[in-house]
């Protein structure tokens, strides 16, 4: 992962990978119906004004800004202008709840930020953007199906994408432009918003739940995706915290 100096121009990273799933109507979710809703493969929308910058390292050599950690400058793009998607909930400090924390039960790593909250707590859009997935009709996987998928991941030594999608449960994805997508997972319900709807920062898009992994209790799993990767991949400790804090400046 790489980034540029604070004077670099915005760089479009390209089209975010198409979301796995079956197309369906976007309605308030109550469970017990058919699968999920996703957007067709299209170009990213125009940049959301509230997501201010995404920097990547230029082709030529460059020195990081004064006071900037060179390791972060080399390895990780920076996202700025997001808001925390649960009102009154700070970003946790426990590394287990942050990106890149090991998940031994599925031979993988955590790809987002976990925010504990009561069942039904409103989930807010982290920035202006376009809804590219909303699981209006969602069926909770059976315990047997989930157990089989996790056992297969352990045998493989990594978590397949389909298994990750299963354990994330009911989801909403918002495309903010510049290749930046935020994902809101384990939801108990979603707002009555159509696929392709433009949402504003702070707009309610769903409610906290425990879908996909009910054993872990209600919480919001929140991912910041940059291109095909998650923000914070390969970073730990102070490096990781700096990148996360910058995202919510």
Task: Describe this entry's structure for a reader.
The chain is an alpha+beta fold and 249 residues long. It has a domain at 85-241: Glucose Permease (Domain IIA), CATH 2.70.70.10. It is 16% helix and 20% strand. It is built from four helices and 14 strands. The protein has helices spanning 70-75, 143-156, 161-168, 237-247, and strands spanning 53-55, 78-80, 102-103, 108-109, 113-116, 122-124, 129-134, 172-175, 180-185, 189-190, 198-199, 204-207, 219-226, 229-230. Strands 5, 7, 8, 9, 11, 13 and 14 form a seven-stranded antiparallel sheet that branches. The chain has a three-stranded antiparallel sheet with strand order 6-12-10, with no helix packed on it. A two-stranded antiparallel sheet has the order 1-2. The longest helix has 14 residues, at 143-156. The chain is globular and about 40 Å long. Mean pLDDT is 78; it is low at 1-50, 52-63 and 71-75.
Please outline the helices and strands.
Blueprint (H helix, E strand, L loop, with lengths): L52 E3 L14 H6 L2 E3 L21 E2 L4 E2 L3 E4 L5 E3 L4 E6 L8 H14 L4 H8 L3 E4 L4 E6 L3 E2 L7 E2 L4 E4 L11 E8 L2 E2 L6 H11 L2
Antiparallel strand pairs: 1-2, 3-4, 5-13, 6-12, 7-8, 7-11, 8-9, 9-13, 10-12, 13-14
Shape: globular
Classification by helices and strands: alpha+beta
**Helix percentage range:** 10-25%
CATH architecture term of the domain at 85-241: Distorted Sandwich
The fraction of residues assigned to DSSP E strands is 15-25%
Series of H and E elements: EHEEEEEEHHEEEEEEEH
Cα gyration radius (Å): 18 Å
